[in-house]
Amino acid sequence: MKFIFEVRIKEGYTAEDYAEAWVRASELIQQAPGARGTELHRKIGEPGVLIAIASWESKAARDAMEAHKDPRITEIIRSAAPFVEITPLGEFEDPEWVVMPPPQGSDRD
């Protein structure tokens, strides 16, 4: 599953500042059972808007990490909180299957 949220950087703080905190927290979060990685993307044309994606084996694995969160993670998040506005966009299931067009130049019979 994917947990996705938007991060809006406040005046006087930078996306790079947030990314530094994000990496420190992610390194700890990724030690939890079921963690499958994190991504942080900058919105095109709006460098102060980011989208964050955390991938998990299951919602139960993410919920278990939240229930027993390392206090260091909480402190990292707390230290960045005054400088950002975070809006959860939701929890999404991984697709059971993905439909993609064939590569360009491939033969179609």
From TrEMBL:
Molecular function GO labels: monooxygenase activity
EC number from the UniProt entry: 1.14.-.-
Protein name: Antibiotic biosynthesis monooxygenase family protein
Annotated organism of origin: Marinobacter koreensis
Domain (ABM): residue spans on this chain: 4-68
Keyword Glycosyltransferase: no
Pfam families according to UniProt: ABM
EC top class, as a word: oxidoreductase
Source taxon at top rank: Bacteria
